[in-house]
């Protein structure tokens, strides 16, 4: 245990500075791209536009009080409009603000928004089951069928999680992967702390948004990092999985 605590203490000490005077931003280096680019030839799946999504009347106090982790889901699929709504609420871009930053529907340290959202889609009307990446600036989905074949990858994806039945039953499982350079650019090593804090903001919005749809959600922190990173073709250093959540209809 002593060695473990030493490593943890070293991490805390190494990331203790609130502001790094030698960060890439302070050195005048170019800012990293705010989003992983899709291949030029990719055929994107356009989602219903955010301004066309219906307003939802909710009792906010009741919504918060009834918030709970739900691990079992029905066969009822999400609609494309509902998936669009969940993605907009969790990572929707309200406006770019320059130097790689953006204002979104969740807070992020320095407005850096380091996450790429990967989706394991099983039950969405009009959407072929498979893996996708959400392009927040375009509000569209990038199919990943060529890189992550469904038949070969579905079982290994489910097996990467400790609570496998929730992933297997979900309509959609969200995986948030940090492109850490976006945070390191401003904050230096302290950016690693912010990546994990920011993940909580995103997932809580998913819980609340799912609640307005009478759907269930369950945060997933217990997964095999190496297996998930490998399956999603994340390098594990510059981009790595941080958090996940299942979602689906409950009635």
Low-confidence stretches: none
Largest sheet: 7 strands, antiparallel
The CATH topology is what? NADH Oxidase
Strand content: 15-25%
Query: Could you give the count of β-strands?
Result: 9
CATH architecture term: 3-Layer(aba) Sandwich
CATH superfamily: NADH Oxidase
Instruction: Give the C-alpha Rg.
Output: 18 Å
Strand order of the largest sheet: 1-6-5-4-7-9-8
Quickly count the domains: 1
How is this structure best described in words?
This protein is an alpha+beta fold. It has a single domain (43-249), classed as NADH Oxidase, CATH 3.40.109. Helices cover 33% and strands 22% of the residues. It has 8 helices and 9 strands. The protein has helices at residues 2-14, 60-65, 80-91, 150-159, 164-169, 181-187, 191-212, 225-231, and strands at residues 45-46, 93-98, 101-104, 115-121, 130-135, 140-143, 172-179, 215-220, 239-249. Strands 1-6-5-4-7-9-8 form a 7-stranded antiparallel sheet, sandwiched between helices. A two-stranded antiparallel ribbon has the order 2-3. A hairpin with an 8-residue loop joins strand 4 and strand 5 (130-135). Helix 3 (80-91) packs antiparallel against helix 7. The mean pLDDT is 95.
What is shown here, in short?
The chain has 251 residues and is an alpha+beta fold. The chain has helices at residues 2-14, 60-65, 80-91, 150-159, 164-169, 181-187, 191-212, 225-231; strands at 45-46, 93-98, 101-104, 115-121, 130-135, 140-143, 172-179, 215-220, 239-249.
